[in-house]
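Replying to the earlier thread about multi-chain prediction with a worked example.

Input:
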Amino acid sequence: MPNKTEAQVVLRLDKITKTFGALTANDAISLTLHKGEVIALLGENGAGKTTLMNILFGQYTADSGSVEVMGSALLPGNPRAALDAGVGMVHQHFTLAENMTVLENVTLGTRPLWAPGLDRAAARARIVQLAQDFKLSVEPDARISTLTVGERQRVEILKALYRDARILILDEPTAVLTPQETTDLFETLRKAIALGLSIIFISHKLHEVMAISDRVVILRHGKVVHEGPTSGTDRHDLAARMVGGEVNTPTAAPGVPGAPLLSLRGVTTPDRGSAPGLKSLEFSLYAGQITGLAGVSGNGQAALADLVGGMIQPAKGALMLAGADVLHWSPRAAVHAGIARIPEDRHKTGTIADFDLSENAILETYKDPPFSRRGWMNWRAAREFASRIITSYDVRCPGPGTRIRLLSGGNMQKLILGRVIEGSPQIILANQPVRGLDIGAVNYVHSQLLAARDRGAAVLLISEDLDEIMALSDVIHVISEGRLSPPFARGSMSPADLGVWMTGHGYGEEAAHAS
Amino acid sequence: MDILEILMTASFWTAAIRIASPLIFATLGELICERAGILNLGIEGIMVAGAFAGWMAVYSGLGLWPGVLVAFAVGMGFGLIHSILTVPFGLSQHVVGLGVTLLATSSTYYAYRLALPEVTSPPSITPFQPYEIPVLSDVPLIGPALFAQTPLTYLAFIMVAIVAIVLYRTPLGLAVRAAGENPQAVAAQGLSVAAIRMGAVMIGSGLMAVGGAFLTMSAFNSFFFEMVNGRGWICIALVVFGAWKPGKALLGAILFAAFDALQIRIQQTPLGAGIPYQIFLMMPYILSILALVVMSRRAEVPAALMVPFNKGER
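Result:
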């Protein structure tokens, strides 16, 4: 067994620098990793963590600097070299072929291409053995498309272990996991460490960092700003170092509710595949109030968000805006009614990846003055609008002409937030507004939502994170199977109370009796 | 009545298999390209080039099998052009494919005039002859259909098995399929997506050209400009019909060929006498479209088909 005090250096990064256009993602970053050690790599979105790991793994080539694995230099820009040297990476966005089996994904590229056969039996035996050793239960012949997110991640880890990885890089591995799956993952990682592997763990979740890591390295604006043992620090300290100053979690004073701005009267929408539609919903959004919608994912949140956002119409029932029945409902009607939308998936429905920031800033309003008049675009106005958002919402980017694909998730979300709030909307539909964001960005989004509320906007906050719902909402509804709980006032329910409603108890008991 | 009688004749099935053979080659070729993520619309032109190249090689004195190899090599050449433009340059696969079809067709015409400047009707060669496999060819109905064909038809069937085995039973096939499903996964395993895709397009294009060569070297004995006549486009549909699987694609090719053989025969029956013959010409296409609609609804398209892959792109 290795002695930890004199553990050998397995990885050394030396003065890695990488730029994308005008953006310096990594600025002379140096880092060493020892055998059996877990380093937590922290930093806000866009701090350069993912870029650094992609350089280590050979997916990007550094502009300057070198990488050494087990004492020998690593050929830059060559994933094969990294794999052969024993570096295994579990990407934030899995690199799995969905229509293929676990076994096929794991064995891909592990044998010479011109080898005569796949030798599935040996591969299967090896996978089963690894799965047992590392507590990674997966069915080798299952198709990836049938697996849950947690299972897919296990496949990614298996891929690395199957290739005898000695260094595991995990890029925000817990962002997509349930608490139970996170516990399982940590158990796997502890087994890996016990077997002499080394781990780089990238995360935003500070309690996880405290739980699993030996040492913490913090990046900010592409530079290492802190490096030290985990034991000598705490969550508060780490958060402060990450954002480069004190962290101010916004506090929500109770809001003053005004008139109902949007009401649903017995609205029903059709089911969508396995996701339920809404079941005769009675529900209002009030001015100056944040209404939180809690619930387990896939219980009708998407239908409600699409309804409020104008993407779908009620099959039964009616929508009322400021007390008047809505006759024609569409995304455009919603925008004109002053409903601003922060969509659940900023990549898919919030932005167009290959459009630049000014184009993305006016996606919802491009038909309206000042951005267009009599059918002609006014790009200068669009650019000025985008520049204003960039400045006032601290969007880190080279300029309004940057393709939005190049921005980190947090900066992308800030642009969407700016686009939403600059229009002084009456109603804000915030669907998972902080998913995948770091602490600084989370606090920023939350404080902006609170400010909008104080200005008199009605906010509908949809989230799977109960802490977020309870911290911000003036009123909480729980949704389950497309049914809505009665409104609960701030502080009237404990998480456990809400959990009961989330699992589907308490709805329409009378109806059940009647039938 | 009449149709049933036709279906029971050995000559009908013999014709169907013969008509299917070039489709099988070209469909396999297109399937390999698409499995690696590249739509190859150069197929129609590559078939024309292959038909000419194989025939011309034999006419110039080469043997029949070397002629097939020449056709294959010419197909690979056009495949190389296609893959350079679509893989490292990442250009539109539609535009490049149509361009390759136009290039291959027109350069074939050019080569034809260069080789035979004075000729009004193309010379003929001695094509592949049917080879009756002993015993098996004596089985009623399917015997003559399957076991009394030319060697090139047998090769078509063998290719189906080879392609299926390579795709599903070797590391190479796994890498090809993964390149068409998720090239990031391939790159993350340290393999070259570009090499895999370019290789697949070249091999696939070679098979397309052999499909064309079947027309001049086995089905017929000479080269005519219009002889490919849209078969390449049919093969694109057959790949979809076959749900990107070699075995199903083979069935699709035989089904289409059977419709084609059937319509010729119905035209000659009393039933067909009162109906304009163009209706019958349309039949295989209409039935193919209907079959395509039914079959392709649940088919799994390679997820990264027509998606260029750029290393280092965020």
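The two ends of chain A are 67 Å apart (CA to CA).

Feel free to reuse this layout for your own posts.
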